[in-house]
Amino acid sequence: MRRYLFILIFLFITVAAMAIDSFSKPVDMHTLNGPMMNNPGRGWRLSQELQENFNDETWSYDNKSECYYNSAHPTAIDSTVTFNYYSGTWNHYETDIYVYDPTFEYLNALIIDNNFTNAIYEYNDQHYLTEKLVWAYRNHYQYINNRLSAIYSWQWSPSNPSYHKEIPDFDTSGRIISSTNQVSPDSTNWVNFEHVDRSFHSHDTTTGDIFNTNFAHQYPLGGFFNSNPYGMVSQEIYKSWSNGEWINDRRYDYSYDASDKRTFYIKMIWNDTSWENEQQIISSYDINGNISVRLGLWWNPDSLSWENSYRVTYTWEQTTANDDQTTPVVKGLSLSAYPNPFQSHVDIQVNTKSNQPIQIEVFNIKGQSVYHAKAMPNTQITMDGKSLSSGIYFVKAKQGNETSVRKVLKLK
User: Fold this and answer.
1) Along the 412 residues of the chain, how does pLDDT read in single tens digits?
2) How far apart are CA 202 and CA 200, in angstroms?
3) Partner of 110 at 20 to 30 A CA spacing, among 136, 143, 327, 395?
4) How far is CA 235 from CA 17, 154, 167, 196, 197, in A?
5) Burial bucket for residue 172 (CB in 10 Å: 0-12, 13-18, 19+)
6) Strand 176-184, strand 391-399: pairing
7) Residue 199 CB: number of other CB atoms within 10 A?
8) In this structure, are residues 166 and 180 in contact, taking their beta carbons and an 8 Å threshold?
9) How far is residue 363's CA from residue 386's CA, in Å, rounded to a whole number?
10) Do 70 and 24 meet the contact criterion of CB atoms below 8 Å apart?
11) What does the alpha-carbon distance between residue 256 and residue 231 come to, in Å, rounded to a whole number?
12) What does the alpha-carbon distance between residue 168 and residue 147 come to, in Å, rounded to a whole number?
């Protein structure tokens, strides 16, 4: 089943592509407030993303993600629960948990309950993003004079490790106007791979400091919260290295409305002599300025026309400091863990209507399993946590296709 939206950095593009091109991927969300995507100062937060695909001249459900927020910080996303639609029903796919620094402004970790991957983020004293650790690869972000000077990426493989390097170039305002990507089998011998040239809308006011702030806030949220730390980009042209020269590969043209919100972009592919249409994304907004629909279209070269491909509908809600919307229980499977915080032990209780046994597993912040047990429904087990280091842990219960996760804190 195709999934154009969700998630993540992380799940639906290759590790190599992420290492090279993930934070320069064009997207069409316009504004972000701290770690939460919304319109600053208007008290709106995303409640749901719903995707439909266009097949046989009709729209059909594909997947949806529901957002839940930290009770003490109602604009900080606490978790997302994703469902796939098949056989006429919505079926739970995964629950993703977001872990922040003490200020709840910067994302420290992303934990995905189906164990595809977990992500860890690190920042320097200026709150610039410096490290990204995801399963078998690592990104290091290097700064010189408060500018992102290089990105070094390493992808682990038992037989074929690979290395990637991206070197950006800036204009006088500190905007990244171009980047060159190189690859290496040994981190010593580098070969050109891809180059991008970037131009900006006349209304763009992005500076180097603004980019660093946007990058630290937006990039860790990944593909779910589509964002663009570069600013109001008007065009990007990507080129591939071939036979000692740069060859056109693909191009993105962006358009904005009178409020400087991105309304659409067109992706074109180079056919050796000219640019050809491939994809178009059209974004519309509600009366509050929040994105309401994103429509994806593909170019049909036979009919020379645009055809519907997918549609994403966004549901927003207003928030106040008193909101308390926390991660829900997945239907049919209820998980509790107490005391929380704990010092020596945790009592884990799982309630369900099914008689199937339940797999219990506990993970640390790095995604490493520290405890595993099997339990019968509607029973309680006790985990001895005296040997565990202090910090955040995630208790996961899985029964058949249903999963529930709870976050617990170990104190000294």
Assistant:
1) 333 333 333 222 222 222 223 333 333 222 333 333 333 334 788 899 999 999 989 999 999 999 888 777 888 888 888 899 988 898 888 888 888 888 888 888 887 765 555 788 999 999 999 999 887 788 999 999 999 999 999 987 767 778 999 999 999 999 999 999 999 988 899 999 999 999 999 999 999 999 999 899 888 876 444 557 899 999 999 999 999 999 999 999 999 999 999 999 999 999 999 999 999 999 999 998 889 999 999 999 999 999 999 999 999 988 765 544 444 444 457 778 888 778 888 899 888 878 888 989 998 877 788 999 988 888 889 999 989 988 778 888 888 767 777 778 787 7
2) 6
3) 143
4) 21, 29, 19, 10, 8
5) exposed
6) unpaired
7) 16
8) yes
9) 15
10) no
11) 12
12) 9
Q: Residue 353 has which token pair?
A: 């209507």
**Could you give the CA distance from residue 119 to residue 220 in angstroms, rounded to a whole number?**
9
Q: Can you tell me the distance from the alpha carbon of 378 to that of 271, in angstroms, rounded to the nearest whole number?
A: 61
By residue count, the chain amounts to: 412
Question: 174 with 148: CB under 8 angstroms?
Answer: no
Which residue type, as a one-letter code, is found at position 315? T
Residue 351: closest CA among 395, 393, 407, 404: 404
Output the CA–CA distances (angstroms, integers) from residue 72 to 81, 324, 409, in the order listed: 20, 8, 16
Q: What are phi and psi of 246, to 5 degrees?
A: -85, 130
Distance CA 151, CA 261 (A): 29
CA atoms of 159 and 210, how far apart (whole Å): 40
Q: Which two tokens stand for residue 167?
A: 């070197």
